[in-house]
Amino acid sequence: MLNLERLRTLDALARHGSVSGAADGLHVTTSAVSQQLAKLEREVGQPLLTRNGRGVRLTDAGRLLADHAARIISQVELAQADVEAQRGCAVGELRIGAFPTAMRGLLPQALAALRAGHPELRVRAREQEPGESMAAVVRGDLDLALAIDWHNKRMPVPAELTRTHLLDDTVDIAVPAGHRLADRSTSPGKSGKAGISLAECGDDDWISWNEGQFCHEWLVSTLRGTGIEPRIAHIAEEHHTQLAFVEAGLGVCVAPKLGRGPVPPGVRLLPVCDSVRRHVYAVWRADADRRPSIRAAVDALRQAAAGLP
């Protein structure tokens, strides 16, 4: 009899391509992965892995069994969804991934409501970029993810996933208090013409997200679309770090409203005339659509989004 947890370990190795990747995906140690795979090899009576330089690769038998493991795990998830749906209660464990501003500005309210309304549901949340979290949902490492795209740059959603829109998040441009456009700020007590166009920041240095991230690629392509070749002077992952650089006069940045928090006194926020906005949505596997825990989480997220200022 093949052990399901060992099949999950083999499936994780096949998906991640390494023992360390499988360990990260399963939230266990590398030694635990190695032990599970060694036991699985003894169960099937033939090698499933072979050395490949400093790593490992699947043998023909390993690839064959990994394909079966993926289908078995999918069927188990369907069975779990059906049983949970039959019971009609949100119970068990729900794993959620969220990008940083949603993790800060949306998820706490939703999780508090879930805890109050569904005390038997255990939620584990992790901060993760949208592309990574959607891939994790496809793999089965997460049950639900919060993702974003932009009004002029959509993020493709894999066919295996279902998504629902939660909110539109408008953004401002953050500039130093001494900036030439600072008098068009949204800050209280400021006057003058409100709003700027992105082209008006064509001569500025920009503080952006990490290269390769969806939001960084959006910023670069959007500025180029206005005829600006952006000067990316600094890279910072956290929005509060970006705003600290802005306050120091080191450039300008995009400042989403979701999860923004207090703005440093030396920063002015400028609305964008053409209403730059992000679409925030939740995604989950289509074969888990009947799970009450998914439905409860999506409802809580919608209510939290509706309650935002």
Class by SSE composition:
alpha/beta
Largest sheet: 7 strands, mixed
Low-confidence stretches: 187-192
Mean residue pLDDT: 88
The topology string of helices and strands comes to HHHEEHEHHEHEEEHEHEEEH
Strand content: 15-25%
Proportion in helices: 40-55%
Shape, principal axes of CA atoms: globular
- Number of extended strands: 11
Rg from C-alpha positions?
23 Å
Distance between the termini: 55 Å
Q: Count of helices?
A: 10
Please give a structural write-up.
With 309 residues, the protein is α/β, with parallel strands linked by helices. Helix 1 (4-16) packs across helix 4 (60-87). The longest helix is centred in the first third of the chain and has 28 residues, at 60-87. Strands 3, 4, 5, 6, 9, 10 and 11 form a 7-stranded mixed β-sheet that branches. The chain is globular, with a radius of gyration of 23 Å. The chain has 10 helices and 11 strands. Strand 7 (205-208), helix 8 (214-225) and strand 8 form a beta-alpha-beta unit.
Keywords:
alpha/beta, single chain, 10 helices, about 25% strand, about 300 residues
Outline:
This protein has helices spanning 4-16, 19-26, 30-44, 60-87, 100-105, 107-117, 130-139, 214-225, 239-247, 292-306, and strands spanning 49-52, 55-58, 92-98, 121-127, 144-150, 161-176, 205-208, 231-235, 253-256, 267-271, 277-285. By secondary structure, the chain is an alpha/beta fold. Strands 3, 4, 5, 6, 9, 10 and 11 form a 7-stranded mixed sheet that branches.
